[in-house]
Hints:
The protein is an all-alpha fold. The protein contains 17 helices and no strands. It has a single domain (2-379), classed as Growth Hormone, Chain: A.
Amino acid sequence: xxxxxxxxxxxxxxxxxxxxxxxxxxxxxxxxxxxxxxxxxxxxxxxxxxxxxxxxxxxxxxxxxxxxxxxxxxxxxxxxxxxxxxxxxxxxxxxxxxxxxxxxxxxxxxxxxxxxxxxxxxxxxxxxxxxxxxxxxxxxxxxxxxxxxxxxxxxxxxxxxxxxxxxxxxxxxxxxxxxxxxxxxxxxxxxxxxxxxxxxxxxxxxxxxxxxxxxxxxxxxxxxxxxxxxxxxxxxxxxxxxxxxxxxxxxxxxxxxxxxxxxxxxxxxxxxxxxxxxxxxxxxxxxxxxxxxxxxxxxxxxxxxxxxxxxxxxxxxxxxxxxxxxxxxxxxxxxxxxxxxxxxxxxxxxxxxxxxxxxxxxxxxxxxxxxxxxxxxxxxxxxx
Length: 384
């Protein structure tokens, strides 16, 4: 149920990206302005990760994620009825905070049940948000194209309410809480925060989030504007990126378990190097045909989400300790979304001023930098 819940949370998040061309056309906002709305989501999501990580460890995952689901549903309904900029920014920021309850909660639920082969388990479970992406892109594109962009916010809110009811009825509050060992958890978490290895790997994650932000936010607009593809077709092609990510996350988890010494770091380095080559070719072949676009997005997803899942899923399970998994997951993911806050508004400005070439150059530099940061960790025996 945790897998399904987190997957469908993306319907109430990616609807903004899937609706961008129609929303922009109706309301007349520039890409920079739209990037500000997306950036408001990212900063509140990031801050919410830090807060919810500790709340999940203290009060348990079930009640926290239930509150998040219902609050996100409410914000999506409101977004579908609002027309002015400031309320849109505020509503989408609150939605970001509500959505941030999801990841620390599901990591806590899963890590309390599995203690071995964490690469394999993390790779499999980490695909949940990719499955959500793959289903959400074409579905939301279809809804926006045929029923208007506002319905792309109202319908997902109904789905979240149903999920909240099912979660309440089917999931037991079995994951451990901090309880009387709160002082021990605080000590361990502070030790992780002082770790150079954790800071470095979090920095690499921020750079991967830069790339992820560009592709998840602007992919339909890229195909729509650069190659004049219909919005619905663009949504279908963009769905191949999370599909590639599912394969990449499972492969990277398996690979990191098999490589033994420095397996996590080695897998990240190999895939980020491959990502750099993929970005180099993507800009020139993605729009040649439907097939070329599908293959291009698949390869971006494979090489991007493989290292992304290792850092955001496996490392919190492995280095979070018995009571702080949610806190560590919240810290790493929160740092990544602080980066997204910068990336989304910056890339919106970059596209307005320098076009899509500027955005692809930004992604390439980020990928190479993430690889170099991870390679630096080879001198350390462990991340924590």
